[in-house]
Amino acid sequence: MSRRQIILDTETTGLYPDSGDRLVEFAGLEMINRQMTERNLHRYVHPERDMPEEAARVHGLTIEVLEEKNAPPFAAVGSEIAEFIRGAELIIHNARFDVGFLNMEFARMGLPSVEELGCEITDTLAIAKEMYPGQKNSLDALCTRLGVDRSKRVLHGALIDCELLGEVYLAMTRQQFDLMGGASEENQSAAAAAPVSVARTGRLKVIRANETENAEHEQYLDSLGEACLWRRGETQA
């Protein structure tokens, strides 16, 4: 039997799990043999603290919204989340961020860490950086590049982001899967026979980042802290 894969995402009050920020939404979608199953887990979580305005602008989850949803504290759902992901391969975009928050929340409850639960972690951001070096590799950028419809994504949300990430992951790993014999001979033959047309123009079209993409870029640089070579270069310049 193939190992379970969980497409996973979280939303939080901020960027720093070691400085008082808390998890406010968890979503995980199960996939087996590259097919989504009907098993998933989606929970809103009350952070038991205030919600910074900048975080609410990203995901739309104010304390009032969470209370309207009767969101419980993490202590009420932590064991359920831990059991859901136990032993699975976790597919996460910028995995260090989400795993850091899950491990912080698990530790507060005395639960095992993600690693201790036997999870393997696959970071789609790392895959994207290897496949598309020097390009923007946010989830939005990858959806655009790979033809994944993200029209329903008005705000960041763990559930919708999982759905998009699942499609992005399948698209990025399709060739590798085919090389491992995952595709049928009929599909492989059709793919080989299909003509490939590459449009060429005299000059490249420059697509500049919009305000949301710039904000996501800055958020990611913030999450790197002192390890961010880009910020170091700006300081030294």
Task: Map the helices and strands.
Elements: E1 5-12, E2 23-32, E3 35-44, H1 53-59, H2 63-68, H3 74-85, E4 89-92, H4 95-109, E5 120-123, H5 124-131, H6 139-146, H7 158-179, H8 185-193, H9 211-224, H10 229-236
Parallel strand pairs: 1-4, 4-5
Antiparallel strand pairs: 1-2, 2-3
Walkthrough of the structure:
With 237 residues, this protein is of the alpha/beta class. The chain has a single domain (5-183), classed as Ribonuclease H-like superfamily/Ribonuclease H (Nucleotidyltransferase, domain 5). The chain contains ten helices and five strands. The protein has helices at residues 53-59, 63-68, 74-85, 95-109, 124-131, 139-146, 158-179, 185-193, 211-224, 229-236; strands at residues 5-12, 23-32, 35-44, 89-92, 120-123. It has a five-stranded mixed β-sheet with strand order 3-2-1-4-5, sandwiched between helices. The longest helix is centred in the C-terminal third of the chain and has 22 residues, at 158-179. The protein is globular and about 40 Å long. The model is unreliable at 183-202 (pLDDT under 50). A divalent metal cation binds at residues 9, 11, 161.
